[in-house]
Amino acid sequence: MVGGNPALQPETAITKSFGIGWTPSYVPNLRVQIDYFDIAIENVITTIGADTILQQCINSGNFCGDIHRDANNSLWLSNNGYVVDSLANVGKLETRGVDIDVSYGFDVGQFGKIRTNLVGTYVDEYIVTPISSDPSTKFNCAGLYGDTCSSGASTANPIFRWRHTLRTTWSTPWQGLDLTASWRYFSAMKLDSLSPQANLSAFPATVANGGISSTDAAIKAYNYLDLSAAVKLMDKMTFRVGVNNVFDKDPPVIGGTNLPGVAGNGNTFPQVYDALGRFIFGQLTVQF
């Protein structure tokens, strides 16, 4: 049984970061920015998970009051047996990684200018501790997705090791016409329950014995190409048209048992992957 909790307190965080910026004089129009981040969030508002509550009660006597058995001493045979798993300030979340922002531009003579920009993030660690007072409950979700790493104290999305957008714009010499191509990249993912980490492992359920579908074992790396064009019609009026997901690539389809309801919709992650396929748009902007 899940639900809210009027006794919840605000989460608190300590963020450490530093960066290096580089604009070499011998390479005009080149800019490189690299930032390291280290974020620790305490008192994370999260559910603990029924399995963790049961394990904690057996091993340490914690949370036993949240377990309610029916007349047959069962939790699953009737609606009278249940585990209370409401939101609480019990978790801890730590993440470390690097943000990269690189841009470069150059003239192509009578053909205008080319500008390109790469923005990417590498996640080295994404450590979730469902019960901060018990470090043995922690696990690292970097590069993983699934029922544990895509819900609760972690996130509603897969935790990509690397993701980026590379955008290149050609500013043509023709009446304010800009043409842009964007490459969106998401690194490959692995199902969290196939991780060797003790708090994530689904042993003995594996792909080999049919406990986990081979289609859910991993999500391959995804690439999307987006194209757009913008033209200045007059001093304060710009028209823009474009196509996202030019090749109409289908999103990864994931089994319901490995896709948390809080994150998934239509057996995929629409917050990340293009669930509706190719998308064509037009936009008219007028400034007053």
Residue runs with pLDDT of under 50 for 5 or more positions: none
Rg, Å, rounded: 24 Å
Structural class: mainly beta
User: Outline, from the CA principal axes?
Assistant: elongated
Task: Give a short account of the largest sheet.
Answer: 10 strands, antiparallel
Strand percentage lies at 35-45%
Count of discrete alpha- or pi-helical segments spanning 4 or more residues = 1
Q: Topology as H/E string?
A: EEHEEEEEEEEEEEEE
CATH topology assignment: Maltoporin, Chain A
CATH architecture: Beta Barrel
* Helical amount: under 10%
CATH superfamily: TonB-dependent receptor, beta-barrel domain
Distance between the ends: 53 Å
The CATH class is identified as Mainly Beta
Query: How many DSSP E strands?
Result: 15
Calculate the mean pLDDT score and round it. Answer: 87
